[in-house]
Amino acid sequence: MNEYRKLAKNGLWHNNPALVQVLGLCPLLAVSANFINALGLSLATIFVLTLSNTLVAATRQWIRAEIRIPVFVLLIASAVTLAELVIQAFAYPLYQALGIYLALIVTNCVIIARAESYAVKNRVAHAAADGFLMGLGFALVLLALGGMRELLATGTLFAGAERLFGESARDWHIRVLELEHGMILAALPAGAFICYGLLIAGKNAIDQRNKT
Amino acid sequence: MNTLFNLQSRHAARTLALFALACIAAVSLVYLGVKNRIQAQTTAAQLAQYRDLVPELPLDAELLARAVPRQVGEHATEYLYAARTHFIRATTPRGYSGDITLLIAIADDNRTLRGVRVLTHKETPGLGDKIEARISPWIHGFAGKTLADTRFKVKKDGGDFDAFSGATITPRAVVNLTGEILDAWQKASGLPDSSSAP
Question: Which residues between 41 and 60 in chain B have a beta carbon less than 8 angstroms from any beta carbon of chain A?
Answer without folding.
Answer: 41-42, 44-45
